[in-house]
């Protein structure tokens, strides 16, 4: 992969594992500087430790609770002060809050603080730096924003709201800042494996899920990273204000055979 001459400064939230880790590694392989954060302390984040060892001069890690606005503000401020610029913000951190529509108020609040408000506030704090660099914001939503399953509220509701956040950031902050959403479906991460493991037969649950994808498999985290790399490039300069679904064709199916 060809590296660009001037490394960009890229913020990746939720970078300690799964999709966030893959996104961070993709930009690092491309030659960029990545400042990652996640809730976990570094001592509890072995993947982040490995990235620090592999890219000691271009990867930096912070423990940040993105539900706490003061921590977000400090994280973004320190990143800009250290490097003098921010070129790309990949707002990825989030978590499944599958409690159902009758969830407790505490579950509702926790979900919206993490899966909606944090994305808005990260963008708000990074805006001055991104305006200077004419940068890019990438917001990770989910295919649950378009169609969902029983028991997945309030998660799916916040993910749907992110579609509107992407639109508003685009029309109010453009043309200096370009914003795009990404909506992955089933990606082969520890989080999705935990969902399979919650079934009586995890192997069977995985096989049934794979059969529901026209491409015949579920996604790989590095594929999300490659999409982020493209969307952050000048080649994607006319893509803005929209959310791209990458779900292996899952959402194209009107009805599953075993549901008929």
TrEMBL record:
GO molecular function: 3-oxoacyl-[acyl-carrier-protein] reductase (NADPH) activity
Enzyme Commission number(s) from the entry: 1.-.-.-, 1.1.1.100
UniProt KW keywords: Oxidoreductase
Catalytic class of the enzyme: oxidoreductase
Record Pfam families: adh_short_C2
Source domain of life: Bacteria
Family, as annotated: Belongs to the short-chain dehydrogenases/reductases (SDR) family.
Name of protein: 3-oxoacyl-[acyl-carrier protein] reductase
Organism of derivation: Trabulsiella guamensis ATCC 49490
């Amino acid at each position: 992969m060809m590296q660009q001459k001037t490394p960009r400064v890229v913020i990746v939230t939720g970078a300690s594992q799964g999709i966030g880790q893959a996104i961070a590694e993709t930009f690092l392989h491309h030659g960029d500087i990545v400042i990652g954060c996640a809730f976990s302390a570094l001592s509890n984040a072995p993947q982040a430790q490995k990235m620090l060892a592999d890219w000691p001069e271009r990867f930096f890690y912070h423990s940040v609770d993105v539900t706490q606005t003061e921590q977000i503000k400090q994280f973004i401020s320190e990143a800009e002060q250290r490097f003098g610029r921010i070129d790309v913000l990949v707002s990825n951190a989030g978590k499944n809050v599958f409690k159902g529509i009758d969830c407790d108020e505490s579950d509702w609040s926790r979900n919206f603080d993490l899966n909606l408000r944090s994305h808005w506030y990260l963008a708000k704090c990074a805006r001055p730096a991104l305006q200077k660099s004419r940068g890019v914001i990438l917001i990770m939503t989910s295919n649950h924003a378009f169609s969902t399953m029983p028991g997945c509220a309030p998660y799916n509701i916040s993910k749907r709201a992110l579609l509107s956040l992407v639109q508003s950031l685009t029309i109010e902050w453009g043309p200096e800042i370009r914003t795009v959403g990404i909506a992955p479906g089933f990606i082969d991460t520890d989080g999705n494996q935990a969902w399979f493991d919650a079934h009586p037969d995890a192997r069977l649950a995985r096989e049934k899920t794979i059969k529901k994808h026209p491409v015949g498999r579920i996604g790989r985290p590095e594929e999300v990273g490659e999409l982020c790399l493209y969307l952050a490039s000048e080649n994607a300069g006319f893509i803005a204000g929209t959310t791209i679904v990458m779900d292996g064709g899952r959402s194209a199916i009107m009805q599953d055979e075993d549901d008929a």
